[in-house]
Write a structure and sequence with these properties.
By secondary structure, this protein is mainly β. Helix content is 0%, strand content 46%. Strands 3-2-1-4-5 form a five-stranded antiparallel β-sheet, with no helix packed on it.
Length: 110
Amino acid sequence: MGRNLGIKGIEAPEKECSDNNCPFHGSLRVRGRIFRGKVVNDKMSKGVTIKFERIYKIPKFERFARKNTQIKAHNPECINAKLGDEVTIMETRPISKTISFVVIKKEKMI
């Protein structure tokens, strides 16, 4: 059984892995922001691209606008998120040039 992250609703997966950059079975520490999104690309080795929509205010027009954001995240072997999965990602130290997030939970298949 892996390490518990101390976040409500996030449990360690049953599957074991030998990935050193896994927050449950490796030595990677997580901190900071948490996002939920959909996997739109899983072609990287040990990485996925997550897309989610955010709403922000435009003060001049007193309206709200929607924007899509894409974030690259590390995909541990024990979670193994695939294209179309709803996932939760959390901020961590930089793993590579573009990856500073890690997948911590797979919600469901779409």
